[in-house]
Amino acid sequence: MRIAAEGSWRRPFLATMGLAVLVAAGVGDGGAPFSLTVLVAAGLGFGVLFRLFPRGLDFALGAGIGFATYAALFTVIGRSAFPQASDVAVAVAFLLPVVAFLLAVIRRRDRLRRIVEEGETPDELHLRRIGRVLLLLALVGVASLSLPANRLGPAWQDVAMVGGAAVIGWLTARAVRELVRLLVDMAQLLDALSGRATALVVPIAAYAALFSLITIVFACFYRVAEGLSRHPLFAGPEGPIKLGFRDALHFSIVTISTVGYGDIWPTDDGARLLAAVEVLAGQILLLFGFYEITRNRLSGEEGGEGKDG
């Protein structure tokens, strides 16, 4: 894993906080105070972790992914289990595990710094420990959803929510070593993936270009067929529709990706046949993409073996 150079905090900071802004906007359906809480927690977490472990972009992204996952799960479970909890209780409950984790990191920084700097290959003991921690955290979440806390009054929901967060904070503080090792594992994985990304640029660009070409060509086919027909060839929830190019392009994208939104569908046998041909072309394109990515990977491995030899 690459070590961050002196003063190279900008890229990790921008990546981490950019992700935090997106997550805060996404989970902020409870109002602006919770979004602000998420941003404050992300900034605090980045400041502490990067100050103690300046490991660069990969480690920052690994920590950001973990934080985003926590924010998403907290939002889903918290709002479902404690729908009448106050904004203050929600903010406190969200910050408690984050603060407990960061305080544990600061307290054990010398031992954890060695893990981050040297890295450790995941072993069976580490996997068992992190699995046990994740299981306990999952049980707290399941208990929050299973127990009838949502039937309590707002004040008791505040107490129950903060109490559950305190349990999660205690668990994360106890398992800080394994959680930091998990962040290191994620950073090493991201580092390896970024090293291989160059080999995938060409097949991905070729796939995207062909995907765009097929989508646009078939959209034009649908529009031309619609223009030559005396009656509508497509329908929507409200009945037959006159297909414009924007609708034709949307239908083409939906068809080639086999999403099937159901907002537009062909009612003419010729249009149905044309859509079937596009689906077939999309499947062939998918096979082409898999083949090119696999071929480039095998070529890279053979090249590496040749250099080793």
Automatic annotation (TrEMBL):
Domain Potassium channel: residue ranges: 225-290
Record field: transmembrane: 12-28, 34-53, 60-82, 88-106, 133-149, 197-224
InterPro entries linked: K_chnl_dom
Keyword Ribonucleoprotein annotated: no
Gene3D superfamilies associated with the record: 1.10.287.70
Domain of life: Bacteria
Keywords: Membrane, Transmembrane, Transmembrane helix
Protein name: Ion channel
Source organism per UniProt: Roseomonas populi
